[in-house]
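Sample intake sheet
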Amino acid sequence: MSDRIKSFKNKGWVDAEDARRRRKEGAVELRKEKRNENMLKRRNIPMEDFNNETVPQNDNKDLQSLVLEAQSSDPNVKLSCVQQARKELSKGNNPPIDELIRAGIVPILVECLDDDQNAALQFEATWALTNIASGNSDQTKEVVAKGAVPKFVRLLGSPHEHVREQSVWALGNIIGDGPECRDFVVHHGVVDPIISFVNESTQLTLLRNIVWVIANLCRNKDPPPSTEVVQKVLPALYKLVQHTDNEVLTDVCWALSYLTDGADEQIQNVLNSQVTPYLVQHLGQTDVRVLTPAVRAVGNIVTGSEHQTQVALDCGCLSYFPALLQHPKESIKKEAVWTISNITAGSQTQIQAVIDHGLIPLVINALETGDFNTQKEAAWSVSNMTVNGTPEQIKYLIEQKAVRSICALLGVRDPTIVQVLLDGLSNMLETVKDDCEEVCRMIEDCGGLDRIEDLQEHQNKQIYKLAFDIINKYFSSEDYLENDDENFNFQINSSEQQLAPEGGFNF
């Protein structure tokens, strides 16, 4: 079989060994489009003040005066000014973060974090710094530069729950700024105290913030989190993936999607933690917030080795895909088709599993009716199947009217997808080359031949060559012209009969 594949794949541009790698690389664009779906940073905008006591208001003070008075030795005046600064930073639209930074508020707030005798002041200062760190990278790094990180880590052990929770929030914003800040916070010992909160006694509101921080710790690929960090957070994620709260599960699934977004070694670390069966169950979620990262994480797993892909299949992931491939949310459908494309880049047994679950007609429907991004993923799914499938599997693909759907997209402007589609057609024709006239007839009847002929004029040399080879090899022979009106049926040899659907193939 490998010799057969190599014999005709040299005419195209993707071989069996290359298909899965190219699908993993192609997934980068898919993930970039969704990058903002999970919030990196969060600003604390209250419905009401934490402290219900009446505090003197400073609404009419300009920011510079506010900062000057925040340095008062009178604890009541200091608290009032810090609280007013926090309120300014909590405004819903255009909070004056840069103005307060320029006025010198950050070092004053950082100093307040040391006042263990005044929990209200610690809380207000932490809250204000949280909102500064929720801004752009320069604003976040201003908080880091003034020495807030080790103080926040220390406050994770505060006896006051509201101070602990706000410190978690502040650290999450700093970690979410990027790998540099993430690793700086990790260096100051954040991981162990954060993980220690993952227990049954932790209040749900705090636990939600804890899981969000863990997700930010797992985020970013350049560089990815250290192996030490990953090994510490995975046991916590194993517990959390079994939680019943959807906000918790959302960030757990995002964390797992980040940890599986990499090399096979990174995927294996996640598989070794035994989270996969629970992760796969979330493919049945009705809450799109959980479902989106769950599909992403499973999709990432099947970009790994065939063994790693099989782990996901053995957990029953394919049983969820009929619903996912027909999901009303197009982005879910696209991720589902992308996942299938990575499975059809696998072994023939794995391709057969896709067939047995009735997914090929749904993939072809996505090729016909999805938006263009979904169609692109469906094109890869079909083309990968023609690279790696047995002759019977490829003939089944033809029986499901894949030829018509492929030909309908040959006029798109994306040269990569045109190459993928032509490659799929070429593989189909090569697979049935002794009886290829029926496939040729399908191509001609749906207008595909005209499109292929037009592609011989394409400026892309690969597209030109693929189109020329198809025309030259399958549509220029006397045999094809003489048998223009004849019907042909595929012949299935006895060694391959076991893979055919009951009743055989009918064209």
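Comment: The CA atoms of residues 240 and 252 lie 7 Å apart. Confidence is low (pLDDT under 50) at residues 1-13, 25-37, 47-60, 485-507.
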